[in-house]
Amino acid sequence: MNASIKAISYYLPEKIVSNTDLSLEFPEWSVEKITDKIGIEKRHIASEHETSVDLAVNAAVKLFSEYEIEKSSIDYVILCTQSPDYFLPTSACLVHDKIGLSKEAGAIDINQGCSGYVYGLSLAKGLVSSGICNNVLLLTSETYSKYIHKSDKSNRSIFGDAATASLISNTGLLSIGDFVFGSDGSGAEDLIVKNGGARNELSKEANFNPDDYLYMNGSNVFNFTLKSVPSLIKSILNKNKLEKDDIDYFVFHQANSFMLNTMRKVCKIEEDKFHNDMKKTGNTVSSTIPIVLKDTYFSDIENKNQKIALAGFGVGYSWAGCILEKSI
Amino acid sequence: MELKGFIENFKDQLEDNSVSVNEETKFKDLDNWDSLTTMLVIGMVKTDYDKDISATEIADCDTILDLFNHIKA
To answer: What digits encode the pLDDT tens for the residues A146-179?
Structure first.
């Protein structure tokens, strides 16, 4: 049995932080420099009391209304988040309740970052193609902004908050091909919120402790992607018995513009076949890939190409890729 | 891989034409040298010379010539 992405919607929080806003807070950080190097003009940030569950609910409600989907048709919800509302219960159960899904529907969280959408697709495809479920609601929702210290201008410039909702069913616009995965936990400390889990408590001292906040070693993460992504692309093509020229469009996790441009050159992909645009949203972690798919394939479907290669990579380290094919 | 071309490529990463650099330039002392420039150099080394270099290896080099020799080794 096939599995396809039938619909995608996304939700961005109302509050916007522009490069001008950041330059006012950090006078040494020029608007031009942020725009030129990382390719981001603004990012949406969740308000103080707005959480990943709230964003995910908004994305799901939007999906149902945009595509006239009956809530009762959903038999499983997967929520990908690294900023859950609570340690327990599972945030997906909260979302399930707030959007009023059938009591017979399953609900689980998966904890994965920039590779999360592709991982979520693989699980959703498994459920649908095996006949276990008919309609899987795949949600990605992240509020990294709550983990970033207000003085951390680099990460505040890069990351934005967002949520997406995708419906995975037997039929749909984009049929889901074969997957490739990878993991390397030896890179865990390069992108981490160290304190607050079971291993290390949050600091009790009044003084600032950087380990209470999100830390990213940008150059180590960059080196990891330069090493892992070119072979990931080769493996995706091999697994799907395709050549690079068979691919009409490459959608990588939209990390930042400079990193993507370097990866494009290393992977030897033509510019017009490669998506590199996160100007209006920033790096929204597991939501970047579905946002691109929505804006390209689900808005102006007629003129778009046939075979798309997806690649997600980052925190973990974790990476994954697959092929989507326009099936209708 | 020759030094002259390497220095030109390195200069391109600084994105400031007014800066003059040569093999003896201590690049970390340049006004616009920052962590983002380090990443640009990592990208240049990978795309133009097909070599991997870490931020620590770059930080361990003093002059552009040191960096060139390190990559060439």
So the answer is: 999 999 988 999 999 999 999 999 999 999 999 9
Q: How confident is the model at residue A300 (pLDDT cuts 50, 70, 90)?
A: low
| Cβ within 8 Å of residue A317, ≥6 positions away | A182, A183, A184, A185, A186, A187, A188, A190, A221, A224, A228
Identity of the residue numbered B22 = N
pLDDT given at position A234: 95
Note the pLDDT of residue A31: 77
Q: What is the pTM for the complete model shown?
A: 0.91
Mark whether A267 is an active-site residue: no
Per the structure, how many domains does chain A have? Answer: 2
Interface test with B, best of A28, A219, A261, A271 (most B CBs within 10 A): A219
Closest by Cα among B62, B55, B13 to B35: B55
- Going by C-beta distance under 8 Å and a sequence separation of 6 or more, which residues neighbour residue A324? A5, A174, A175, A176, A177, A293, A307, A308, A310
Domain count, chain B: 1
Domain boundary pick from A138, A172, A206? A172
> Residue B43 has what pLDDT?
87
H or E element that contains B6: helix B3-14
Among A55, A64, A21, smallest CA distance to A41 is for: A21
State the alpha helices, DSSP H only, in chain A: 19-25, 31-38, 52-67, 91-99, 116-129, 153-158, 218-239, 257-266, 288-296
Segment A115-129 mean pLDDT: 98
Task: Identify from A26, A32, A153, A223 which residue to disrupt to test chain B contact, counting B C-beta atoms within 10 A and taking the largest count.
Answer: A223
- Taking residues A136-142, what's their average pLDDT? 98
Range of the domain at B40: 3-72
* ipTM of the modeled complex: 0.71
| DSSP β-bridge partners for residue A136 | A76, A168
Closest CA to A155 of A205, A195, A191: A191
